[in-house]
């Protein structure tokens, strides 16, 4: 189910432009519009779930597909094969788009958590 006012639902529907780097039946991967690393991708499940804590058994296949997409994205990396995967959950954690997504960050040395 997509939400009319959701930016990621609109990107998936092709109504808002984005730089797509990978897509399959369950996920779309785009470049983040405000990158925080040389490689900053967003892995977006093609189902409108607000965040990881709102996942149901029915949606879980989309979250799994998002994790599996990292295999494809890692193949596209040049140089270091290291990457960080983040999903912010809630405003205090830094979430600003309330459609589940995973930040795929690479291309620089990451600071400790
Ligand atoms: P978060 O703050 O964890 O919810 O992540 C949302 C991310 O979406 C931010 O890093 C934004 O820069 C990114 N973003 C928002 N709108 C767009 C867009 N239209 N195209 C690409 N990335 C976007």
Structural write-up:
A hairpin with a 3-residue loop joins strand 1 (20-23) and strand 2. The protein has helices at 7-12, 60-76, and strands at 20-23, 27-31, 39-45, 84-86, 102-106. The protein has a five-stranded antiparallel sheet, with helices on one face. It is α+β, with helices and mostly antiparallel strands. Helices cover 20% and strands 21% of the residues. The chain has one domain (7-106): HIT family, subunit A, CATH 3.30.428. The N and C termini lie far apart (34 Å). The model has no long low-confidence stretch (mean pLDDT 96). It binds adenosine monophosphate (AMP).
Largest sheet: 5 strands, antiparallel
**CATH architectural designation:** 2-Layer Sandwich
C-alpha Rg (nearest Å): 14 Å
The proportion of strand residues reads 15-25%
**Which structural class best describes the helix and strand composition?**
alpha+beta
Termini separation comes to 34 Å
Low-confidence stretches: none
Order of helices and strands: HEEEHEE
Portion of residues in helices?
10-25%
CATH domain topology: HIT family, subunit A
| Strand line-up across the major sheet | 1-2-3-5-4
Shape: globular
CATH superfamily: HIT-like
Bound molecules: adenosine monophosphate
- CATH class type: Alpha Beta
Task: Kindly give the count of domains.
Answer: 1
